[in-house]
Design a protein that fits this description.
Layout lengths: L7 H7 L3 H13 L4 E2 L4 H8 L3 H13 L3 E10 L2 E11 L11
Antiparallel strand pairs: 1-3, 2-3
Helix pairs in contact: 2-3, 2-4, 3-4
């Protein structure tokens, strides 16, 4: 698909800061079926030409405001667990239940 859609409710309801918009735009670009993984903060920051700290703060803001859900991922390594990159789920902002899209 040659374009990225951003829900109007992000502008009308969530109203994030410029950090939040930058993070959301990067997530939307990398998302497949509403989920974004396998692209780290570094890739997202490079895509929208901001610092990694800006993306991290933007992601935290979007989680806090209910625009995305952060899912921690782990894999079992012997008897311990190793953390993998987080997965972010874009939320359908047009529904009261805020189900993943």
């Amino acid at each position: 698909m040659p374009f990225v859609w951003i829900q109007r409710a992000l502008f009308e309801v969530i109203r994030p800061s410029s950090r939040g918009y930058s993070a959301y735009l990067a997530l939307s670009y990398f998302a497949v079926e509403g989920r974004c993984r396998a692209h780290g903060v570094k890739d997202m920051a490079r895509l929208v030409d901001v610092s990694e700290d800006t993306i991290k703060r933007g992601l935290a803001e979007l989680v806090e405001r209910g625009a995305i859900v952060k899912m921690k991922k782990f894999k079992k390594v012997g008897t311990s667990r190793q953390q993998l990159p987080n997965e972010y789920v874009l939320i359908d902002l047009g529904t009261a239940s805020r189900d993943p899209i």
